[in-house]
Design a protein that fits this description.
Length: about 375
């Protein structure tokens, strides 16, 4: 009886250990031409990227990592220097990756998951877009043409991704991944001001909420989608009586907002200069490319009398201050964000939007009337 009792105790302990073991997924494979290189496994979390494991590869290039089964799905990347391969994990499957180090970012293969094939396609398309944007900036004859070309590239990219990767099955990991792709450090899809993009966020959030309602990714995505929907509601009528005295010489509506140092900067104080009044959102996915265009314009024409008075409608003050810290022109921010009365008074319907003001402080035209921005600036500066 004692022997049987010991067997029962041992069996119970073995069961207890096996029952408490955390379910895991396996990421393994071979990376050739990478002897003595360090291979890192990065976890792409909701808020940050962290290194979860690493291994020094031998001449065979074999590796194996184990990761916890996610509550929803998770994203990882294998990294050697600047070469990276992205993966999604949604169960306890085994993913097998094969690559050669020189082409690891673009020519890897993944077995064990159809979703990862789609994810790989998305990553490649984003790289192609980045390359096309860089070519556009280098080859465009004017800065305005560069910006227009970039806008077209991004618009076409988003249309393709919506129809091929998001709407066909919004609950897939690659549909979620697509929402957070970046171009020049900014999100390609705009969850704050673009209604078409916000619908994409809402579609994916709805599907995740159905299957993974308690997951961190689901909760975060729902919050983003709800914020975007609130932000794009039609603004409430403005009480124009509160603006009495702000219309100066019937030529321009004055704006008085604080800059990054808290100093109030008035638009009407710039009389005598040619002013580009620019309404902008630094959280916009195309903001980085656009700022590059504006910087070149400013460097070229500032000494001739050009000033840029930029009104930021970013909701996050810390993000705005960090982003515009090294901007050479006047940049102010409205705490009202997309509902800023200044934007409403100037009839701003989308971002970015700019207006040109002559040396006399008169509003002469808005962006949709300008065919060649540099030529128009040179004309105004010569007056």
């Amino acid at each position: 009886m004692k022997k049987i009792s010991n067997i029962l105790i041992f069996t119970a302990l073995l069961c207890a250990v096996s029952c408490t073991k955390v379910p895991q997924a396996t990421i393994e494979g071979h990376i050739t031409e990478a002897a003595d290189e360090m291979l890192y496994l990065d976890y792409l979390g909701v808020e940050r990227i962290t290194v979860t494991d690493s291994v020094k590869l031998d001449k065979e290039g074999a590796f194996r990592f184990h990761v916890a089964q996610p509550e929803c799905f998770d994203f990882y990347r294998l990294r050697i220097g600047k070469e990276m391969a992205y993966l999604s994990v949604d169960s306890t499957e085994t993913l097998t990756l094969t690559a050669a180090l020189p082409t690891m970012s673009i020519a890897y293969t993944v077995e064990g998951s159809e979703d990862n094939l789609m994810l790989k396609q998305l990553v490649h398309k984003q790289r192609e877009l980045q390359h096309a944007v860089q070519q556009m900036i280098r080859n465009a004859r004017t800065m305005l043409a560069a910006q227009e070309g970039i806008d077209t590239l991004v618009l076409n990219y988003k249309k393709e991704v919506r129809m091929e990767y998001i709407y066909p099955d919004p609950g897939k990991p690659y549909a979620y991944f697509a929402l957070f792709q970046r171009l020049g450090g900014r999100f390609i899809f705009d969850p704050i001001t673009n209604r078409d993009d916000i619908r994409c966020f809402a579609a994916v959030a709805t599907n995740l909420d159905l299957f993974y309602p308690e997951a961190e990714r689901t909760q975060n995505l729902k919050n983003i989608a709800l914020k975007g929907m609130r932000n794009t509601r039609p603004p409430q009528p403005i009480d124009y009586s509160a603006l009495e005295g702000k219309i100066v010489e019937a030529a321009i509506i004055d704006i008085a907002l604080p800059d990054i140092d808290g100093m109030t900067r008035r638009l009407t104080d710039l009389k005598g200069k040619v002013v580009m009044l620019d309404f902008n959102l630094y959280g916009h996915p195309q903001s980085a490319a656009r700022v590059l265009v504006l910087r070149k314009l400013y460097e070229k024409y500032a000494e001739q009398g050009l000033e840029i008075y930029q009104v930021s409608l970013d909701g996050n003050e810390h993000f705005w201050k960090t982003t515009v810290e090294n901007i050479p022109w006047i940049c102010v921010r409205s705490e009202e964000g997309a509902y800023a009365k200044e934007a409403s008074l100037y009839g701003v319907r989308e971002l970015p939007t700019y207006f040109l003001v002559n040396r006399a402080g008169e509003l002469v035209m808005r962006d949709e009337m300008v065919e060649d921005l540099e030529r128009e600036l040179e004309r105004l500066l010569a007056e």
